[in-house]
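Question: what's this shape?

___
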Amino acid sequence: MAARRGLRLLGLLYMSDCSPAIRFTNVEFMREDRAILAGINWELPAGGWGAIVGPNGSGKSTLVRMAAGYLWPTHGSVDVLGYRLGEYPVDELRRKISVVEALSIYPFDEQMTAEEVVCSGFFGALTLGYHQPVAEQWTRTNQVLTDVRMELFAKRKFWTLSTGERMRVLMARALVHQPALLMLDECTSGLDLPSRESVLIFLSHLAELPSPPALLMITHHLEELLPQVQHTLLLNGHGQTVAIGAPVQTLTDPLMSEAFSWPIRVALRDRRWYAESESWPPLHRPL
């Protein structure tokens, strides 16, 4: 209860804007001679919670890196929090957003504690060796560690934590500077079931804030999708749009089967999504 009350108070600090959190307009992306993304048009409303779903190689992570200002479209435009990439300083934009990538290696100083890793989020740094956090920043750091139920691990070295514990610390690091947009790329990849559920429970509580940050989840596992996700973009393996809309419109047997080129059956139970293969062998249908 204390953690949830803390989250509710933190919600007062998040800013909202009437502009879409993210807007992709006719986005294409080429790598060498291969089209990674083709004609993507999709937006996540301000304060909205959305997900990009698709198989491996569909361009999901590429879209996240574009929204974070690390990649540029070959064609089209990307708007984030009301600012068009290329027309607004990228460094300033990145101060308004946070990205957590489960499969990325974060080369923090091996001596850093969980508390220090979270505090480094204020500076976008991998060490505090060149920074001197002020008292208010340490207070905020410990509040967010409490929010993710990691306060008892604050003084533990980050690299001695379990995978699930490290993911919760990275979540705290992403939230410590109160971003307007939080993007999670396969945020529960590699976690066991209890660790995955602890991360998803925390995110559910985050959604209960009076004014939560906009959130974008990248996944190919439907069971990771939270009930609060109401905006989805479904891609196929060629980086093309299969469907756009609410989950009940896009996460259907025919559309998921088309996106993954495999017969898939989808179920919604207790507000959570589940998918399973319907038969063998895979489909071979033209796109």
